[in-house]
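Quick one: structure for this chain?
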Amino acid sequence: MKSIGHSAVIIIILLPIVLSLISTTLIVHAGPLMHSLIDKDSRDPKNAHDTLTYYYSYIITDTDELPKIPGMTDAELQHLRDVRHVWRTGLLSMATGALLLAGLMIYSWRKKTLHVALEWGSLVTIALMIIAGFVPFDSLWVWFHSLAFPQGNWVFEYNSRIIQLFPPAFFQDAALRIGLLCLFLAIVTYGVAMVLRWLAKRKMKTTEEAKDVTEPA
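Got it. Here's what it folds into:
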């Protein structure tokens, strides 16, 4: 790959992150999908539905209080409060990353390197999603929680209330859908890159043909 400039390199690095955050946000905030996963995986679907609906409203409130969910211990509620912080940080990171990516894409478009950046960025994203598909979910789960919750308050007993409402299978199914959506978005981005590459070649060819016509014999 020829030198394509710093902006294109940043796009290649940033694109997998932004697509992952967008996919996570879309899946997590898709109420009907999440509720269908509850029906499929929860050991107490009725209370899990109520808890998730309440938790959506809790996330957007500016409070440091623990969520009010009957039957959960303080440790479980403290963890859900920490999840709220991670959730909000993720939304802010997605918005910031998307704005930065958009700015870099405009700059790369002007530098005529956007198609290369999107092509390689989408290929990197596709490769990462495929690799993640071969990693055991438990390993990814532990890695993410160790990173997001360094205080370590995310391990609960099998019969705890939080696990009864939202068992590992619920999160595994959600993660699968996030990965598939991210893969789909990466494939679409690759298609866009191919169209942009074709347009760039067509423009170059048209310019060369026009130059040949105007040059004196």
